[in-house]
Amino acid sequence: AAGDEITADMIDGLARKHFPMCMRHLHESLRRDKHLKHHGRLQYGLFLKVLGLSIDEAIVFWRRSFSTMQDDKFNKEYKYNIRHSYGLEGKRANYPARSCQQILTSDTPGSQDSHGCPFRHFSSENLQTGLLSMYSSQGLGASDLLEVMSYVKNGHYHVACTRVFEITHSSQGVKKGDGVGNGESVTHPNQYASRSRELEKS
Ligand code: SF4
């Protein structure tokens, strides 16, 4: 289900506090490169749609984010695809956001891509550096890496992501084994983000 409405202006703040690593990485890549490739735009755009970004706010967000692009190019090459992902063009389908399972198993990213699941698709070194740079302000420390990486090495990517959620929400009372609620592990990036936002409100 769609969440409360969010605006383009809110996304930097939401990303820092509530996004799972796949979406944090897409957000930071977009800020750094002022662009995202096709699969990245799709993975991130559908996630933001389900998070509650309206079509009008989505166009504002992407237009501003591609800050070095001319209006003409944006309107011709990108606007249609954004409207399409909201079901406003083409066959007008209501595209759902991708689940972890889909992100983990389809469209394997190449070296120039930013989509995918960092727990599966990053090198061990980049994953550890990324975890510390993104989540140390929320309480994830170097001493947590060994545990997180042990799940990754065994191919338990959801468990690694769930553990990061638990650690980064421990100041809100989340304990090991609580998962994203009722002991559930992470199965969808939107589930991660909406549970994180609920904890903040509660
Ligand atoms: Fe994203 Fe799912 Fe991977 Fe977590 S496990 S980083 S939510 S794809």
Note down, in words, how this protein is organized.
The protein is 59% helix and 0% strand. The chain is mainly α and 202 residues long. It has 2 domains: 8-85, no CATH class; 100-201, no CATH class. It is globular. Iron/sulfur cluster binds next to helix 2, helix 6, helix 7, helix 10 and helix 11. The site of iron/sulfur cluster (SF4) has 14 residues, from helix 2, helix 6, helix 7, helix 10 and helix 11.
Biggest beta sheet summary: none
What's the number of structural domains?
2
- Principal-axis shape: globular
Q: H/E series, N to C?
A: HHHHHHHHHHH
Summarize the structure.
By secondary structure, the protein is mostly helical. The chain has helices spanning 11-18, 21-33, 38-51, 55-65, 71-85, 100-105, 118-121, 124-135, 142-153, 157-168, 189-201.
Offer a few descriptive terms.
2 domains; mainly alpha; 11 helices; 202 residues; binds iron/sulfur cluster; globular
Please describe the topology of this protein.
Layout (H helix, E strand, L loop, with lengths): L10 H8 L2 H13 L4 H14 L3 H11 L5 H15 L14 H6 L12 H4 L2 H12 L6 H12 L3 H12 L20 H13 L1
Bound molecules: iron/sulfur cluster (SF4).
Iron/sulfur cluster binds next to helix 2, helix 6, helix 7, helix 10 and helix 11.
